[in-house]
Design a protein that fits this description.
The chain is of the alpha+beta class. It has 3 helices and 16 strands. Helices cover 20% and strands 36% of the residues. Keywords: Membrane, Transmembrane, Transmembrane helix.
Length: 269
């Protein structure tokens, strides 16, 4: 921009423009040595600038800023980082199957279903790790084994599993099972308060989301896709729970059309 040549300005009412120009020129020239046309431009555009700023400040639905004025909405953050390799998925599936074999279950899993040689990978993808010091991503996967065993794992640890013949019913919201867990509670010495949510669902459910709300902050919605009927998502507040007071976790699941089919709020106690 050439500061010695003023840009074109749409003319205002002559009398109104003159009053504003004289007022601004007197104030600005006392404090700043600016090209003479800048106060004129400010006078010509001043009303439009004030109106635009008023619209931004009064934007409904924003989060309160330092002076109690709403600011822009927090942007949702996608946790999805892409597919894992077959080698990564196989190694994680073997670890998961080993942890499943020593898990507690009222109806024992047939030994052949726990044979790692029968593993058939179904899905495996990485998501961004939140609130896990030293860890940048997590592996979310599903696989099946002999006798129709279906297993859902995260980082080599099982979240849910279904044997052939298990009755999962026909839930109206499409969610077969779900679980929310907290970490960082009640130990106030921890540096992060974290919540993670896992679910199994019908194919029509495509996405799961979570956010945390505390007295001193709210996280954006963490968003993760649901693959092969398995979803896992996490959120974290970067300070001990004692600094946030009571915290709530809002969880929701959406179908392929973007409609919320499941929503629930969990307390941290």
């Amino acid at each position: 921009m050439n500061l010695t040549t003023p840009p074109p300005v749409e003319p205002l009412d002559p009398e109104f423009s003159t009053d504003l120009r004289h007022h601004l020129v007197r104030r600005v020239r006392k404090k700043h040595h600016l090209p003479f046309w800048i106060p004129v431009l400010a006078a010509a555009c001043g009303i439009a600038i004030v109106v635009a700023c008023g619209i931004l400040i009064a934007r409904p639905g924003g989060h309160a800023g330092p002076a109690g004025q709403p600011t822009a909405e927090l942007t949702d953050q996608s946790l999805d980082l892409g597919a894992a390799t077959s080698t990564q998925a196989q190694a994680s599936a073997r670890s998961c199957l080993a942890s499943l074999s020593i898990g507690h279950r009222t109806d024992p899993i047939p030994a052949k279903s726990l044979d790692p040689k029968t593993i058939k990978l179904r899905s495996a993808h990485w998501i961004k790790a939140l609130g896990l010091p030293g860890q940048t991503r997590q592996l979310v996967q599903t696989f099946s084994t002999a006798n129709g065993l279906w297993v859902f794992c995260v980082d080599g640890k099982w979240q849910s599993y279904v044997q052939a013949g298990d009755d999962q019913g026909n839930p109206s919201d499409g969610i077969y099972s779900s679980s929310l867990q907290w970490s960082g509670l009640p130990d106030a010495s921890t540096t992060t308060l974290r919540a993670f949510f896992s679910l199994t669902s019908r194919p029509s459910v495509a996405q799961v989301e979570i956010r945390l709300r505390g007295a001193r902050g709210t996280t954006p919605w963490s968003v993760a896709k649901i693959v092969d009927g398995a979803g896992y998502v996490a959120a974290a507040l970067p300070s001990p729970a004692s600094q946030h007071g009571p915290v709530q976790a809002d969880v929701r699941a959406l179908d392929k059309a973007g409609n919320v089919v499941y929503s629930e709020t969990f307390n941290d106690n």
